[in-house]
Design brief:
The protein is α/β, with parallel strands linked by helices. It has one domain: Rossmann fold (3-Layer(aba) Sandwich). Helix content is 34%, strand content 20%. The chain has six helices and eight strands; from the N terminus they run βββαβαβααβαββα. Strands 5-4-6-3-7-8 form a six-stranded mixed beta sheet, sandwiched between helices. Strands 1-2 form a two-stranded antiparallel ribbon. Strand 7 and strand 8 form a beta hairpin. Helix 1 packs across helix 2. The radius of gyration is 15 Å and the shape is globular. The relative contact order is 0.22.
Length: 184
C-alpha cells in the first residue's frame, strides 16, 4: 500500500504533529569523465552504465524515501538526467531546474530551499563538493567530518525549523546500498 509515495511501515512514515521539511540530497549519477575531448564540463552527460546503475538505485531510493513534493535539480545535463530517472522511479513528480544547484554556493541553495513549503519533502540533485558542503552545514559538521557523496548516493535530512538553521541527518546511503534495495 502506498501513501504519498511512501510504503507503509518504512522509517520515512509520518507520525504525530505537523511535519518539518525533509530534504533529500542526491548526487548525480556517473557521468562522462571531466576532460573528455569535445565535451565541455557543463555539458557532460551520464554514461550508459551510469544511467543503468542509477535506474536501479532510484528504485531503491523510491523504497526508502517518500515521493518528494518538489524535485529541484541543477540544470547541467548529468544532474537533470539523474533527476528524471529518480522522478520516473517515484512517479507523479517532475524535476524543476534550480541554477543555484550548479553554482556550488551553499548560501544560494539555502535561499532556494527557504522558498519551499515548510512542511514539504524536497529533493535536490546536484554536484560535489557543494552537496557535501550543504550536508555539513545542515548537520553542523566540521569540514573534517564532512560526508562525501558518491555518484548516485543520497541523504535525508529533517529540517525542524528553517533550512538556514540546519537539521538532523536521518540517513546517508551510498549508491551500492540503494542499488541493492532497488533489486528487491
Amino acid at each position: 500500500m502506498r501513501s504519498g509515495g511512501s510504503r507503509a511501515g518504512t522509517a520515512d512514515q509520518d507520525r504525530g504533529p505537523p511535519r518539518a521539511m525533509r530534504l533529500l540530497i542526491i548526487r548525480h549519477a556517473i557521468a562522462v569523465p571531466r576532460g573528455t575531448p569535445g565535451i565541455p564540463d557543463d555539458e557532460r552527460p551520464l554514461t550508459p552504465a551510469g544511467r543503468k546503475r542509477f535506474q536501479t538505485a532510484a528504485r531503491g531510493l523510491a523504497r526508502v524515501a517518500r515521493r518528494p513534493d518538489v524535485l529541484l535539480t541543477s540544470p547541467l545535463p548529468r544532474a537533470l538526467a539523474t533527476a528524471e530517472i529518480a522522478a520516473a522511479a517515484w512517479g507523479r513528480v517532475r524535476p524543476r531546474k534550480a541554477p543555484a544547484l550548479a553554482t556550488g554556493s551553499v548560501k544560494r541553495v539555502l535561499t532556494v530551499l527557504t522558498a519551499q513549503p515548510a512542511d514539504a519533502t524536497v529533493a535536490v540533485v546536484g554536484h560535489e563538493p557543494s552537496l557535501s558542503a550543504l550536508l555539513a552545514h545542515l548537520v553542523s559538521a566540521s569540514r573534517s567530518e564532512r560526508l562525501t557523496f558518491r555518484k548516485g548516493g543520497a541523504a535525508l535530512v529533517e529540517l525542524a525549523e528553517s533550512p538556514a538553521k540546519g537539521g538532523r541527518l536521518l540517513w546517508y546511503l551510498p549508491p551500492k546500498i540503494l542499488r541493492r534495495l532497488g533489486r528487491r
